[in-house]
Design brief:
alpha/beta; Hypothetical Protein Mth938, Chain: A; five-stranded mixed beta sheet; three-stranded antiparallel beta sheet; 8 strands; 26% helix; elongated; NDUFAF3/AAMDC; MTH938-like_sf; Mth938-like domain-containing protein
Amino acid sequence: MLRLQRLQKALAGLVPLGKTYNLTTVPSAQMKLQPDKSDAQSLTAHGPGWVAINNEKVEGSVVVGSRGERFSWDCSSFDQLGAEHFAQLASLGAELIIFGSGSRIRFPQPAWIRPLMAQRTGVETMDTAAACRTYNILAGEGRHVIAALLVESPAG
């Protein structure tokens, strides 16, 4: 009890009892917000059969990295994917691979990602739209991340 009384006495002059403060009630508190700046490529839009990298529309599947990696990924449907596609990703040395599996979530076979697991590279699977958003967040944080995006041709 004596410790509590000493603490209350010490804090008495700092904050009046019964008052609460937050950024909206303290008129002298100013906060300046600035957008984060990143040199990483960003995925700026997506749609059926395409994604936009730094506002450039790219049709077809693509691999994009936060350190400038960018190349066409030779597949237009999930059924065309194989171990060689993921082995290609293992050579990039990223800390995380974000696999955008198209319009819906489909997981790669364990044998396909074995080279990535062997070098302890993380693999996250999600639909391509979610992969674009996730890539932008992680790349903006300065992480070495790769987005392997399966971009399927629109049904027609």
